[in-house]
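Sequence only, no structure available. Ideas?
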Amino acid sequence: MPRLQGAMRAEKKQRTRMASQRPHHHRILRGLETARSGDAFDFSGATIEVARRLVGARIVRTIPFGQPDAGSRLTARIVETEAYLPFVDPACHAYRGPTARNASAFGRPGTAYVYFIYGNHHCLNVATEPPGVGAAVLIRAAVPLDGLDAMRRRRPDIEDAGLLSGPGNLCRAMAIDRRDDGADLSSGDLRIVASRGKVPAVTSSARIGLSSATAWALRFFDARSASVSPYRRNRTTSAKYRASR
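Reply:
I predicted one. Tokens follow.
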């Protein structure tokens, strides 16, 4: 009996302590919910529109367990994207219909479509159209903001401005690969959140490295950023493509 009474007293103390902490935890949770809702990126809309709005948005990456730097949080501001349109765009991976490889491009808006190319690079894309309609936006370059030490370890001897310049370099530095294919980019270890502060002026030009639809001005970028692909910072080239729209 004394032992039971002692256990009951201990339980009562624990309940009292938990009750005293509850308001504090509720305040923390309310703050987190506010931050999440305030940072939420709106993936809805036409693919071209989403591609433009993604310039200035942020990638938030928490490196998963089992990988080097597990638990580290990396963030970057997107400065360059490319739109790949539904139905009419022969350069879009989804143009010929769904396959096992491109299935995520047919997912709901905000689904990660990650593919492997040239036997060496991963590329991060965002599905943009209603489920069943294949289209995506390629995230081509970003400016590193947080977690630079982890990024540098993955891309040593590279200037910070170039760490995330190019889709393969971005994925390598931020530990993004096929395991992230199909992820919901509004939550989890890999997220895209809305921009903070002033939205950058967005310049458009033709996409790069394509053999079809080469003149379509579906590349969007912050021309002031040193992290944009050097080809896209060429003012003569960009002006020529803008004039051809």
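Residues 1-8, 14-37, 232-245 have pLDDT under 50 and may be disordered.
Hope that gets you unstuck.
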